[in-house]
Amino acid sequence: MSSSNSIHSSAMKFAVKAWSNGRARAGVLHLDCCPTPIDTPSLLLSTRKGLPLFISPDLLPSLPSPDSHLLHVSPLHFLEGLSMTTISKIGGLHQMLGLHEYGFAAVPRDSIQCLPEANSTNKVGASFETPCGRLLIKPAEYMEMISSLRPELWATLADEVPAWVSDKRNKTSVDRTIKWLDECIALSPTGGAVFGAIVGGSSLEERQRCAQEVARRNVSGHCSFVDMR
C-alpha cells in the first residue's frame, strides 16, 4: 500500500520525509489510534479476523513498536462467525478485539485463505475462494463490511487477474476496478482512508491507465495487485 505525498484524512496523516533519486521515499504515518507515528516503509502484520497468527493479543505489546502497530485484515474472514450487524453494534474491530492502539488496514484478499478467482468474476462483483466456498462479492456488500469493521485504511474492491491473461481481459479488469472504485467511494462511510486498487495483470500499459484513473479520484493512496499464480 502506498500513500500520496501528503495526506490528511479523519483517521490518517501521511508526509514524505526523504526521497532517493525520485524513485524511493521514506515517510511518516500518523494514525489517530496509534500512540506514536509509524515510519514507512513499514511492516504490515497479517491477521486472521484481526489477530496476528501465532501471536496472542497479550504478546502484541512485546513486538517492536511502532513497527507492529499496523494490522492487515481481510473483511472476507468475517463471513464466518458474528454477523456484520453485530460487529457494527459492538463498535467495530477496535472495540471487538480490544486493540485500541493498533491501526487496521482492510484489503479484500489475503495470501492464503481468501484468494481472487478471476474466471468467476463478472461485471457484478469480484469472486473469491474463501473458507465458506467460492463467493461473489459486490461493491455494496463489501462496503457494508467496511462500514461495520471501521478500519483506519481500506482498499477498494478489485478485479484481480493472473499475469498470463489476454490483453482484452487485462483491459476488462481495469474497467471493472475503476467502476467499483467509484461505487465504493460513493458508498464509503465517514472516516477511514480510501486506497484505490491498481490492477492490469502484467500489462504495463493497463496498469498505468489504472493508476492514472485512480489518481483522478479522491483517494488517500493506492494498493497495487498482481496475481502471480
From TrEMBL:
Annotated SUPFAM superfamilies: tRNA-guanine transglycosylase
Gene3D superfamilies: Queuine tRNA-ribosyltransferase-like
Sequence ranges assigned to domain tRNA-guanine(15) transglycosylase-like in this UniProt record: 23-221
UniProt superkingdom: Eukaryota
One of the GO biological process terms: tRNA modification
Pfam family, one: TGT
Protein name: Queuine tRNA-ribosyltransferase accessory subunit 2-like isoform X2
